[in-house]
Fold these 3 entries.
Entry 1:
Amino acid sequence: MRLANIKIGRRLTIGFTLLLILVLLTGVISIFNLAKFNRNIIHVVSEDYPITVNANKIVDSFNQIIMTQQYVLLSNDAAGLQSQINHIIDLRNEIGKRYDFLASASLDPSSSQVLKELILVRKKFYRLQ
């Protein structure tokens, strides 16, 4: 049977049925893709984001230490000097806790290696002070 021999009503029914099937298929594929996207977002929010936040806070603490050291070098205030030195010690302890958090997090091998090297350099540096 050829398409030209089919009545117009039947042709319209076949066309709309195929269109409806394609729309449903597109919807099902979209739902599966959204579910995969949701799993990826949950992974980023629960695992990757806290690691990034801690790494950024380490950088912020380093910057605060640098600013505090500059203040200590330029200041003549003996009373404020000890509080600034205590602030530096607190920041160092905070950085150590954040390094410990990053060390316990599941990182890829290259990031773990870089973190281990940073921790070793940090220990050597503190021994010199």
Entry 2:
Amino acid sequence: MSFINQVEAIIQHNEQLDKSDRLDLNQLLKKLVVEGECTFKNVVPHQTKPVSPLQYGRNVIFQSELYEVVVISMPALIETPIHDHGESDCCAYVVSGLVENRCFSLSESAKPLLRATQYYHSGEYFYESSNQIHSMKNPTGKSFTSLHLYSPPIKNNTIYKTVMNHKSQYLK
């Protein structure tokens, strides 16, 4: 069974359970990683190249009413725009490389203020709640690949306008 078929089967099984019996987002992603054989070899065929305006690859490999699964491929020294996930929670797994996750809050004038920076290596998981504002950065000279599980699928998210430095400008 292909990686995508395994992802579909695991999620569809979880969706068929009574709400009280469903796995939470963290448990479901861990099940996808282990039972879905989420290895670099199995995920790399689902990486995509950056498509403007994004500077990184973002490929939705599964979507239902409850869940969305995305493969993110981040080239060296690239950062996502500062954003939130709307009403969606997110759990992510680092398939390969190093992810710098930068967490923000909004100032009184609604400008993002950096509050924390966390680093996640290959094989590690991280969680972003629906109210979290963040960006992901690749601080290394090699690309990273990550698998993201959102619930519900992302909609009504916000990308925050800001100039981070002379190399990067993020626009809404």
Entry 3:
Amino acid sequence: MSKSKFLSFKLLFFVLFLLLLALAFYFVRGQERQSLPPPVEGQPVVALESEKVDVSKEKAKISPTPKEEALPFEFNLDIPFTSQAPHAIWDAVHEQTCEEAAVLMVARYFKKQKIDGPDDAEEELQKLIAWQKEKFGFFEDTTALETARILSEYYGLKTQILEKPTVQQIKKEVVAHHPVVAPANGRELKNPFFKQPGPIYHMLVIKGYTSDKFITNDPGTRKGADFVYKYDVLMEAIHDWTGEDASGPARVIVVQN
């Protein structure tokens, strides 16, 4: 075999090797993309006992730990979705409406109502903004406690603040049909669909889980319905607003009817 033919053979072998490597990579990535569990409607027959947050005292309360029980391998609540910019107008107002969008999604879930398009969502977001301006004097960057007040006072829902939540605690609440509203450092979420580098403070709804990921409705992107985050990524990002940045305590809002 001549030297040139030998080199051509080596080059062909190398190209085939790279092609096989690429095919193997895409096959593995395809296998990792688990199909999400079907969304679950309705309420459980027996709800977990809980205590309503006394928002007037401005003290976070820890919800009681339910009895240990086997949880489903995966679970997904049927919660309607809207982005925080229903008409895709990301102006100064709608960059701040993740909390309102999260609250709206949870409220419609308990009312068993859909979000009937962008106009419906936008109208409700504006009502929530007006209500907060009257109650708080502002609507931007509401803390977990302030967001819990919106849920309880505006929508009449029961709320609990869960301090230092664990993956298991969040999963138990979701299985009990209690959506979990999570404040977070938006940049730590590393969501590729955010306008980079991402929001300093963000809020989303945890509605389910798979074997290694939380299923969320993330209003920070139009692609946020059933958006999944790995457990460790979301848990490390969960932080309340301090008044200056999203470096406050790790806490979430558990919502019940």
